[in-house]
Design a protein that fits this description.
By secondary structure, the chain is an alpha/beta fold. It is 57% helix and 6% strand.
């Protein structure tokens, strides 16, 4: 910490002087030759050390980090280590390849190394412990600042824990007692998912012998807590197994305790997902010691906790230990929305086996993530889908998938790492993601707010064209949910009709398989086969499917009684029933093939052969869609010719365009017109305007929830920042002088965040009036901008593309509504810096007009009688008052540049009011 202060965070080269061992008379002095590794050279340094002045301390004063705490033979430059630390969170942290590349580079420069192990092994050791110490220092400064927080005197039972507040200020910061403005709104939304690609092999290269634990804070839940939850679940299931085995023997479909969908629907969802099958092996425990990860993230994609998985399947105790840990850090009145790809199955287990306390279950609302909704039954979707479930807003629950995508570069290196090293690398990567998302809070809120307003406006415009009032839509939606989530009638009442429909479906399937086999045989006869091996495999598979379907059809027909055979004969002669049954069977097959296709897209790596296989299946699916639409046309013709039963509703055709997107509101999920005929069908079933209006109503409701949540998060962000600002200001006044520099750096980072955030969230209305202002004054902003746009550290641009770039940005950015990507922000920042640098150099060339400020940067560093702050503010005031071209050029710029323009005007107004 002392060296970082002296070197201004490694910006200044420090002259270490001579060794201080000459003042020590009682210690034994040793001499040591150390090989010093720099970016561009290799030096050999001889130092003297004793117990009072150890060698690592002397090397640190020279800006070198020792590879070992006692008698080091290699030391690495701090600049090199800092570069490695910055680099290895942005690409695969392969320290061996890095050291070998550096060795080859230095060898080409004429620096001969004594041994390869010296660089590779010791440099990796130095890099690791340098990272540990920097993390330790950052955590120490953060803890010091929070110890002066005024919120620490409040009762902890009314607010989330300090850990959660540090993990995500938007979710758990600020005054959450008044954050809930609607009784249906959830206090926070989290998502949960597992990943089986982040494995670790069994004891790779004897790594357990050289893999000590790391003393840094971690987001991983200890294995001991996971084991306790696993034992508890096994005990609960064994105690209640007899009771539930008797209940399962009942044939009647019903609602289980605490559930909102019947048993038949839950069973169908469980069969659709591999994650619901705990016994399914996704990773071999024979070859892998750690089989994967499970994460709990907030809706802003910030990791709350991770669990290291060691089982072959996705066991429920991993998810439950994460949920239980979350509620232990929350006050007793906070409600949580949990999005999980099998959220319905997790809630079922919690109620069935009493896996969570009633106090937790009453405050926990389960949902299914948007990306996995297609695999659930339709009744499950209308209850658990976040776009149809009250309280989730526009949260998608796919933050874990984005996390796994960001961590995929670590898969090869962590596959062969040690246990503790693997956890440390993952923790370090999570820290990098936290810092990156922290600076983008303002951009995230701005983007989500603009998207929400745009979706809401489009939905309102479409709803107004339907001329259906909201009260009618809400009534019809409630009736639809109530009817479509009813348990199925007793199987004994309609068992015969189900068997007949199943037989008709099997007959259609046998016909399709037979036509497929005939087509393959014709291709062979006509010599249209290109790959005989692949053809034989396809023919064998087709014949096998045909044989199985034919055998099942014969068994079903032989099991029919006399009356059932008579009904089957009558059904075959009833054109309406036959066409309707065939259409329903076709629609079921289309749904199954679409789900299988999307599941293949999600779980595969999308290699070229996978893509070609998926492309080959598309014509078959489109052919099924075409056949189904033809049947729908036949049913519509029968209704027009009065050959259909009274109250018959024509089924909706499936549009071929967009069929593979499998949207949750697609007509593919609903069997309108394929069920029993109703003399007086409800409007949600028969009225197309009402059906469209229900979708739009749900979208407007979710947008309203999202607006309220974003307004709360905007207020929470300002309150959290104001407390953080007051804490660091108090720490600067009361903390020890040795921490002053690092506390000032902490404050500078807050000012930088404020400059990025405030302009982005200014247009978002607050849910309540914040109790404090943001905190930074005009002088703080001026000092930050003076450092940010200091021409001494920004190289002058050789070309002059500023005006053209500004014009292109202005013309292209008008349609985005202020929502831009991170790359666009970096481009705009570069444009602003180039414009400021150019304006400064133009002003510097005019000596007559700017003679007073010619050496203002030198005055800041050299004149001790003049305050650097006053000199900086005076120079910036003159600079801003003279250069009106900046204001003129940014006046008609897009949203981001307008924010900069507003900031410059505000800064100019603040500086003009200063007495100096």
């Amino acid at each position: 910490m002392e060296y970082l202060e002296v070197s201004r965070s490694l910006r200044v080269i420090v002259d270490a002087g001579v060794d201080g061992t000459g003042q020590c008379h009682n210690c034994v002095v040793h001499r040591l030759r150390v090989c010093c590794l720099f970016f561009h050279r290799l030096e050999e340094l001889e130092i003297t050390y004793c117990l009072c002045t150890p060698a690592p301390v002397q090397l640190m004063k020279r800006g070198l980090f020792a590879c070992s705490p006692v008698a080091p033979t290699l030391a690495v430059d701090l600049h090199l280590l800092e570069f490695m630390k910055t680099l290895f969170v942005r690409l695969t942290p392969n320290t061996t390849a890095w050291c070998e590349a550096l060795e080859c580079f230095l060898d080409a420069q004429g620096y001969q190394l004594q041994s390869k192990v010296c660089v590779v092994g010791f440099s990796c050791n130095a890099y690791h412990w340098y990272s540990v110490l920097t993390i330790y220092m950052e955590d120490h400064i953060t803890t010091l600042v929070h110890s002066f927080s005024p919120s620490s005197i409040q009762q902890e039972s009314t607010q989330p824990s300090n850990y959660l507040c540090a993990r995500c200020p938007l979710c758990f910061g600020g005054n959450l007692e008044r954050a809930k403005t609607d009784q249906d709104d959830l206090d926070c939304i989290v998502c949960l998912d597992a990943c089986f690609t982040q494995k670790r092999t069994n004891n790779p290269r004897n790594s357990a012998a050289c893999d000590p634990p790391n003393p840094t804070n971690t987001v991983f839940i200890p294995d001991s807590e996971v084991k306790v939850m696993e034992d508890f679940i096994e005990k609960q299931r064994s105690c209640s197994s007899n009771h539930h085995s008797l209940a399962q023997t009942q044939q009647e479909d019903r609602f289980e305790d605490g559930m909102r969908v019947p048993v038949s629907v839950l069973d169908g969802c469980g069969d659709s997902f591999h994650a619901a099958d705990e016994k399914r092996q996704k990773a071999s425990t024979r070859f892998f010691a750690d089989t994967g990860l499970m994460a709990l993230l907030c809706r802003h994609d910030r990791v709350l906790w991770l669990v290291n998985m060691t089982s072959a399947g996705e066991k429920q105790h991993y998810a439950l230990v994460l949920v239980k840990n979350l509620f232990e850090h929350l006050p007793s009145n906070m409600t949580v929305g949990l999005l999980y790809d099998i959220g319905c199955q997790l809630e079922r287990s919690c109620h069935k086996w009493k896996l969570l306390d009633d106090g937790i279950l009453s405050r926990l609302k389960f949902g299914i993530s948007v990306f996995h909704a297609y695999g659930h039954q339709w009744p499950c979707q209308i209850v658990y889908h976040p776009r149809k479930c009250v309280g989730f807003g526009l949260s998608d629950g796919e933050g874990c998938e984005r996390l796994w995508s960001s961590l995929k570069m670590l898969i090869p290196i962590l596959r062969v790492s040690g246990y503790h090293q693997r956890l440390f690398v993952l923790d370090n990567q999570i820290r990098h993601f936290d810092k990156k998302s922290f600076s983008l809070f303002g951009q995230w809120l701005d983007k989500k707010w603009s998207l929400c307003k745009r979706k809401k406006m489009m939905a309102w415009e479409a709803l107004c064209e339907l001329h259906v009032d909201m009260q009618t839509l809400r009534h019809e939606w409630a009736a639809q949910v109530e009817l479509q989530t009813r348990p199925l009638p007793r199987q004994s009442k309609n068992k015969g009709s189900q068997q007949l429909a199943y037989i008709l479906s099997l007959e259609k399937t046998v016909e399709d398989y037979q036509s497929h086999v005939d087509k393959l045989e014709n291709d062979l006869i006509n010599n249209h086969v290109h790959d005989i091996v692949d053809f034989n495999l396809q023919l064998a598979a087709a014949k096998g499917s045909l044989s199985n379907a034919s055998h099942a059809l014969r068994q079903k027909k032989s099991a029919l009684g006399v009356s059932a055979k008579t009904d089957l004969y009558l059904l075959k002669n009833n054109k309406w029933l036959q066409t309707q049954t065939n259409a329903q069977a076709l629609k079921t097959r289309i749904r199954e093939q679409l789900c299988q296709r999307k599941n293949s897209v999600n779980e595969s790596h999308i290699q070229s052969h996978v893509e070609s296989s998926l492309k080959r299946r598309e014509p078959a699916i489109l052919k099924l869609v075409s056949t189904y639409n033809n049947l729908c046309g036949e049913l519509q013709s029968m209704i027009r010719l009065h050959k259909a039963p009274p109250g018959a509703i024509p089924p909706t055709p499936i549009p071929s365009k967009g069929i593979f997107q499998l949207d949750v509101d697609s007509d593919i999920w609903q069997d309108v017109g394929l069920g029993e005929c109703h003399p007086d069908p409800p409007r949600w079933l028969a009225d197309e305007s009402v059906r469209k209006g229900i979708k739009l109503m749900l979208e407007i409701d979710r947008c309203n929830e999202e607006e309220r949540r974003l307004s709360r998060e905007r207020s929470v962000l300002q309150e959290w920042f104001s407390v953080e600002w007051l804490s660091v200001q108090t720490a600067l006044e009361e903390a020890d002088k040795h921490y002053k520099y690092h506390l000032k750096k902490y404050r500078e980072n807050l000012v930088a965040a404020y400059v990025k955030w405030e302009a982005r969230v200014r247009h978002i209305p607050c849910a309540w009036l914040p109790s404090r202002p943001w905190g930074p004054t005009g002088e703080d902003i001026a000092n930050h901008l003076a450092t940010l746009y200091d021409p001494s550290v920004i190289p002058a641009a050789e070309e002059e593309p500023t005006d053209e770039l500004l014009e292109e940005t202005s013309s292209e950015g008008g349609e985005g509504g202020g929502v831009v990507s991170e790359d666009d922000d970096e481009l705009l920042t570069a444009i602003e810096e180039m414009a400021l640098v150019e304006e400064y150099h133009i002003g510097q060339a005019n000596e007559a007009e700017f003679s007073e400020d010619e050496g203002w940067l030198d005055d800041i560093e050299n004149e001790g009688s003049i305050s650097p702050t006053l000199t900086s503010i005076s120079s910036w005031r003159n600079f801003l008052s003279t250069h009106t071209e900046v204001n003129f050029s940014l006046e008609n710029a897009p949203c981001d540049l307008n924010e900069v323009h507003f900031g410059w005007r505000e800064l100019h107004s603040t500086l003009s009011q200063c007495p100096f």
